[in-house]
Amino acid sequence: MAGLFREKKIPAKANLAGKFRVTLARDMCKACGFCINICPTNVFVWSKQVNVMGWFPVEIVDENECVGCMLCFQICPDFCLNVEPREAAQPAAAVA
Ligand code: SF4
Ligand code: SF4
Q: Which positions of the chain have pLDDT values less than 70?
């Protein structure tokens, strides 16, 4: 498939492993597949369990693969996903 959707996933670089937290609102997912297709790595898989809406949603299989690109966050039409850095940003040094 052309464009942003990827048939071939790329493993995340080791230095990014574990840097991002991916949160999924499983019961809001309507299984459109946008996130699983646009994610450049192997963070998502299809679930074998239905959610409350009767869909087989995506699930997060390997959060360590997340590179923080935010594409899933931006493309999900139902606002099911959030991605944030695991380490809080350091506050800027106070100016004396
Ligand atoms: S931000 Fe989303 S699309 Fe990007 S690597 Fe992480 S899980 Fe995949
Ligand atoms: S883009 Fe959103 S609604 Fe679509 S499969 Fe992913 S989490 Fe579910």
A: 1-2, 88-96
Nearest alpha carbon, ligand 2 atom 8: 29
Phi and psi at 74, nearest 5°, equal -75, -30
User: Cα of 21 to ligand 2 centre, how many Å?
Assistant: 17
Q: Are strands 44-46 and 20-24 parallel, antiparallel or unpaired?
A: unpaired
State pTM to two decimals: 0.85
Ligand 1 neighbour 68 (Cβ under 6 A)? yes
Q: Which domains does the chain have, with CATH numbers?
A: 14-85 (3.30.70.20)
C-alpha pair distances (Å), 52 with each of 1, 72, 95: 31, 22, 52
Identify the sign of the CA torsion 9, 12, 13, 14.
negative
Which pLDDT belongs to residue 3? Answer: 73
Structure tokens at 62: 């390997």
Q: What span, in angstroms and rounded, lies between the C-alpha atoms of 72 and 33?
A: 10
